[in-house]
Amino acid sequence: MPEVTAMNCEQQKQYAFRSRGLAGFTLVEIVVVMVLLSLFMMFSIPLFSNIGSNSLDTSARRLSGTIKYLFNESALSGLEYRLIYDLDQGLYRAQILEANGELFDAPDQGREATLKGDVRFMDLQVPGRGKFSAGQVTTFIYPSGWVEETIIHLDDGAGEMLTLRVSPLTGTTEIFDGYREF
User: Fold this and answer.
1) Cβ atoms of residues 146 and 40 within 8 Å
2) What are 25-62's pLDDT values in tens digits?
3) Which of 64, 30, 83 is nearest to 164 (CA)?
4) Contact between 100 and 110 (Cβ < 8 Å)
5) Does residue 182 sit within a domain?
6) What are phi and psi of 129, to 5 degrees?
7) pTM score, two decimals?
8) Which position among 1, 115, 150, 151 has the lowest Cβ density within 10 Å, counted as fewest Cβ atoms?
């Protein structure tokens, strides 16, 4: 009989322990939580790694976005846009050619923008017109869905370079590390 009482007593302790919510996690639950945390970290850490990205990458992405925006605006509005690069000052701006033949500065993303930090234009090449390393260069964005192919070389002053190549048919920009000739 004493064994039965000890067994009942032990069962009562286990029941009381569980009823107070003090039962621990199973190994399966811990593994599932660890896997989920690993997945969240795997997807979120690359997002935070770009927070302090350098000015060369920022300038290239901003210029690329401006070109695509102007390409789309030209196609939607039916007006010719012009992107003017000032290679000496490290800035660019957009203009719109109105139907009456007048040029106006483009609003929104077309306003004058400067390359970030110490980034500068090394040179700019427009096939058929040549390579330019100083002065102002204009590329044309036509409402028919075509932009002049443009190869842009950017330098950050510390030896890092990027090459941007504007696709004439889509207005998208490919960005390459280093100085590339096409």
Assistant:
1) no
2) 898 988 898 888 887 777 777 665 555 458 899 999 99
3) 64
4) no
5) no
6) -120, -20
7) 0.69
8) 1
Do 76 and 31 reside in the same domain of the chain?
no
Q: Which domain holds residue 163?
A: 55-177
CB burial string 124-156: b at 16+ within 10 A, e below = bbbeeeeeeeeeebebebbbeebbbbbbbbbbb
Phi-psi map region of 136: left, alpha, beta (phi>0 left; psi -120 to 50 alpha): beta
Same domain, 83 and 125: yes
CA angle 129, 132, 136 (to 5 degrees): 95
Q: Could you tell me if 106 and 144 are in contact, meaning their C-beta atoms sit under 8 angstroms apart?
A: no
Q: Are 124 and 132 in contact (CB under 8 A)?
A: yes
Domain check: are 18 and 73 in the same one?
no
Strand locations in 34-128 (E): 80-86, 91-97, 103-105, 113-114, 120-126
* Max Cα distance, the chain (Å): 109
In a domain, residue 84? The reply is yes
C-alpha angle 163/77/112, rounded to 5°?
45
Rg (CA), the chain: 30
